[in-house]
Structure prediction request, 273 residues.
Amino acid sequence: MTDLTLTMKYRPNQRVDMSPITCDKLAGLELAEIAAIELQNGKRKLRVDELFSISGSDVEKIHINNSFSKLDYIGHGLDGGSIRVTGDVGAYLAMDMRAGEITVSGNVGIYAACQMKNGFLQVMGDVDDFLGAALPGNKKGIQGGTVLIKGSAGDRVGDHMRRGMILIEGGTGDYCGARMTAGTIAVMGETGRNIGYGMRRGTLLLWQQPKVPVTFGDCGTHTFSFLPMLFKAMAQFDSKFSDSSQHFNRVHRYGGDIAGIGRGEILVRVGNA
Prediction:
């Protein structure tokens, strides 16, 4: 069987809710039934075959082709299988994802990997604000799985992060790791203001020196034996994080946020260690 491929015929003016299109939700459906699924488009509904031409039949491998930035909720609650997107994506990509794999060739809107439970998300381009964060009023952001961003990310990466790993080859905006409870965020590029704001626990691993908030204590330089093991785990991904020349075990450590319980840490690469 070939991948179930949905190729966009035209770009509607209003946003489209793609949450009904996941591998687990399409399991057991005939192509005619998939074509008849209705997608919310602003105030109206569109059949899948109105918006997309359909080919292939393997619902465990979905390919969304010619995507653009108004397709929201792609991979919402995905519980197995894979979704490959050619083009850009809108908001809430991989929200509440539980298992499986999602790959996006372009850029992504706000709240990607929002409240994600498990699985693997890879974005070749940039992502907007609130990557791996919690929705307003919720206190549980990403709770497991791995997110790999080959571009840069916006503000509030990992806001209320509970578990899992976010790897960013580029830089981030302001408040990276804000209100983080656990997990690891690794950033190769520059970070913005107020990094680790309200951080309770967890690790921010940085290749570039940030502007460290005054509520983080300077703990000096250290050699940590766990870092080679962490980089070994990262080596399974096709990214800069698997490049041994980017690996190190000597870091400058900052502990905080001491305005709270202060058990988090910012680890910054020392020279070419």
